[in-house]
Amino acid sequence: SNVGTNLPPGGSGWPVVGETLDFVVNPEKFITDRMKKHSPDIFRTNFFGEKIVIICGPNGHKFLFSNEDKHFTAYLPQAMQKLFLSSQPKTDKLYRDSDVKLLRSPGFLKPEALVNYVAGMDSIIQKQLKTHLEGKTEAKIHPFSRSLTLTLACRFFLGIENPERVAKLVGQFDIVTDGIHSLPLNVPGTAFYHAVKAAVVIRKELADVVAEKKARVLGSGAPTQDLCTTMIVGGYMSDEEITEKLMGLLVAGYSTVATTMTFVIKFVGERPDVYHKILSEQLEISESKKPEELLSWNDVQKMKYAWAVVCEAMRVVPPVLGTFREAITDFSYAGYTVPKGWKVFWTVNTTQRNPEYFQEPNKFDPSRFMKGEGMPLYTYVPFGGGPRMCPGKEYARLAILTFIHNMVKKFKWELVEPNEKILGSMMPLPEKGLPVHLHPRYV
Ligand code: HEM
């Protein structure tokens, strides 16, 4: 075989750090430059201390998503492993393949189950808006959307509603998020060091929740309807496994949903025309219902324009830039051969923000998603694709649309800082938390 002699083109940068810094500072530029210089299909690099190939474009996405388990398995960079896996990892994956199957099977995150959570979500979101935004003339949307998202996750994944407990978790997750944005140096005093500690606190809290729920399930108390209880009642996982799984869900589902909500509010705040279109769609839904009646699954299916707005927000600012795989065999692609053990990175930006597939990629234009014919295959991939595609997609859609419904009915808004800087290339966030001027709308 010609393994090792026919590697994809590319460079490996400095010893040890490789090209890490260039990548972290601006992944989009890093990748676009190298696609031009080396190959638009695949090139090799070296960062986070790993030998990496980056696989690009719709054909790259297709190849990756179609060869799961044959050539590829899931992989987390070492810094993420330190943060998110327990101290005695049984695996270097956030999710073992069997776990993913479990989540996808009749599971809690499937539409059949989610149908029953719409009204509850609507009611929590209404309460949160009342407590945190109503009566204010100005508010920071990003901290709000984070605490809202975690409140929902606490209710539906963990079955906890106590606001102090939720606030404590929000605080710890904020520290973890700061760490993700920093260099992964586990040295006292660094943001990453604090993040590793916060992740330990979160895991301990989750272990307590599992123990409490278990006592409730075994005792006579009426068990709540939540994912944690479902897993306990299932009876085939140890408490540690349940804790680990809940951690994985919170990590995967928390900042992604909050980021999407935040950027929807940003883009809509910049575009009164988009706001008015969303509003008229949402008012039509409300008018078909009794006053005070909570949203249902069917109502959410009618939010077609609002969903186009969400899709376009995730195209311009993807909440997940991309993920890693590990090659479990040597594999050949685009005329090159990559050895077993190398890490493979794919990123949504090589298609979603590529003018070849989306004209004027920086322009926010929800009408791209209203044309009816859909996007060319493997070009729009905010949730990934194939067997590893995000299992939280429907849950995320429900939470975000229910949030938008309530926001436009209650408020109009515009940005306090139209030129606010966006930080963090791997996980984008507005520098000042997206302050907006709020104007109440009386229906
Ligand atoms: C807008 C919100 C979200 C976006 C954009 C998003 C995106 C993604 C992406 C790109 C992946 C990687 C797929 C791959 O590697 O091929 C992923 C995986 C995953 N997501 Fe999401 N996600 C979102 C929300 C959620 C939520 C709410 C949950 C939990 C309820 C969740 C749970 C997961 C899990 C468990 C995985 C790992 C699946 C695996 O490794 O097979 N995600 N998500």
TrEMBL record:
GO cellular-component term (any): membrane
Keywords carried by this UniProt record:
Heme, Iron, Membrane, Metal-binding, Monooxygenase, Oxidoreductase, Signal, Transmembrane, Transmembrane helix
CDD domains the record matches: CYP90-like (cd11043)
- What are its cofactors? heme
Provide a Gene Ontology MF annotation, just one: iron ion binding
One GO BP: sterol metabolic process
* Residue numbers binding heme: C390
Q: Which portions of this protein are annotated as coiled-coil regions?
A: none
| Cellular localisation | Membrane
Q: How does it sit in the membrane?
A: Single-pass membrane protein
Matching InterPro entries: Cyt_P450, Cyt_P450_CS, Cyt_P450_E_grp-I, Cyt_P450_sf
What Pfam family is a match for this entry? p450
Indicate the family of this protein. Answer: Belongs to the cytochrome P450 family.
In Swiss-Prot or TrEMBL terms, this protein is called: Cytochrome P450
